[in-house]
Amino acid sequence: MTTNLDRSRRAARFLIEAPSIGLASLAYSSGIHLSSLRASLLDISDPWWVVTIGLMLLLSPAYHAWVIGKTGALVRGETFPLRKLPMESFSDLVIGELLVNAFVVLGSVLFLLPGIYVGLRSIYYKQIIILHKARSMEAIRQSFRLTMAPRVVFQMLLLLATVYSIPLAADYLLTPVTQAWWVHPISILVSTLFLAWVNVYITLSFGDLVEHGENRTPHHPQG
């Protein structure tokens, strides 16, 4: 079975072979970063928060549909022109985003660990929606089935904890100079690299789980 290191190298290679993934990540990171300068995703007391969360819900489906679809095409050795963008999956991606984030927030209110656990168990729902044309609730259920093995959850936790430390460290180091103009390009660049690599890696991980039958291959519900 593919090791984490092999998958990491493959993800990096895909980013070099498909610069459109990096460009899409740059556009997405720039939009979210610039809108959050007025009000962050968690700053619900500010009326501008609606604009930030609305922009995220608008851009996120398009971004993930492209990156996940493109990565899946690279794995299969196929092209992925813009016309192949799965427009029919957009509504399920939005609903899935709302549901998963609601579950994570509820779990975090009770205690931090349940929120993290729910996030890890549902981590593949976007891949299942885009690559297997599942509906939102079914995709979340299938993601939970794929991550039944504790080893899968633990490995993903270690990986994400390590990778997330990079943008968090950059944010911490840049906090004293947040008013400087050059901080924003650096923040966007770090976010771009992080989003591009993580989404490609998770998509490759999903493919490996399905291919090697880690649990049960997701079925493709209709309707």
Describe the overall structure.
- The protein has 223 residues and is an all-alpha fold.
- It has one domain (4-211).
- It is 74% helix and 0% strand.
- The protein has nine helices and no strands.
- α1 packs across α2 (19-36), α1 (4-17) crosses α9 and α6 crosses α7.
- The two termini are 34 Å apart.
- Residues 215-223 have low confidence and may be disordered.
Present the secondary structure layout.
Blueprint (H helix, E strand, L loop, with lengths): L3 H14 L1 H18 L12 H28 L13 H21 L1 H10 L3 H8 L3 H11 L3 H25 L8 H29 L12
Mean model confidence by pLDDT: 84
N-to-C SSE string, H for helix and E for strand: HHHHHHHHH
Report the span from N to C terminus.
34 Å
Query: Would you tell me the structural class of the helices and strands?
Result: mainly alpha
Strand content: under 5%
**Largest beta-sheet details:** none
| Number of E strands | 0
